Amino acid sequence: MTEPSSQRLAGRVALVTGASRGLGRAVALRFAGEGAHVIAFARTRGGLEELDDEIRKLTGKPATLIAESLTDFDKIDQVGAALYTRYGKLDILVGAAAMLGQLSPMGHYKPKMWTDVFDLNVHANWRLIRSFDPLLRQSDAGRAIFVSSRVATDARMYWGPYAASKAALEQMVKIYAAEMAHTQVRANLVDPGALRTKMRAQAYPGEDPASLKTPDAVTETFVDLAEPACQKNGEVVKAQ
User: Domain spans of the chain?
Assistant: First the structure.
């Protein structure tokens, strides 16, 4: 993990989805190290508690843990109401949770699997925007960051539901960003590239994981986009 030293997110309130593992976990840890109070949202309570232990060790302060499924959409609304009561705002929203689904020819997908991918990769992120937009507007510099993929524009064979869902996500976030242009809210996407994650191993089972960057290697891009000084809006930023 990159050692934080500048406290670039000091005092910011940041909600990160998919925070129990992979990229979401790495971003949550980095944000905490940069001074943000992290609200970690994921299904797996055990993974969240392990994250909280690391954040306490790193910062001496706890995270706020939300062990719920993002596809229980009403829970998102409940979380939005609870955050308004507790903080009155949200400074940073990171939508990192995603699922790959099945890799196969377009006509071979089961309808439920296709729907499940879109529910998490697209519909849950729309519900996050819908519920947290008022909170982001209450911040002096609301920042929304979502995770895309280069397959959103590659039209890669056999990647149907994942690629289509990421393409839909990109358009949705760009539209939201355009709507926010005259506010203090900025919305962008990150293309993290190939990372050493469980999803990557699922997609490329024969690949040597040691040849890939770890998720913490790309967290600098997320910090850049989360800072109040960042004025990027509606962009897909490739992680360095």
Answer: 13-238
Rounded CA gap, 92 and 141, in Å?
8
- 38-47: pLDDT as tens digits: 999 999 999 9
Task: Tell me, yes or no, if 84 is annotated catalytic.
Answer: no
Residue 152, helix vs strand vs coil = helix
CATH homologous superfamily of 13-238 equals: NAD(P)-binding Rossmann-like Domain (3.40.50.720)
Residue 97 DSSP SS3: coil
> For position 5, what pLDDT does the model report?
54
To the nearest whole number, what is the mean pLDDT of the chain? 96
N-to-C CA span, the chain: 15
Q: Does the structure show a pLDDT above 70 at 83?
A: yes
| Residues 55/29, Cβ–Cβ less than 8 Å | yes
Residue of 84, 158, 162, 204 marked catalytic = 162
Residue 35: pLDDT band (50, 70, 90) is very high
- The C-alpha atoms of residue 115 and residue 152 are separated, in whole angstroms, by 17
Closest to 191 (Cα-Cα) out of 165, 233, 224, 222: 222
DSSP 3-state assignment of 144? strand
194 vs 47, higher pLDDT: 47
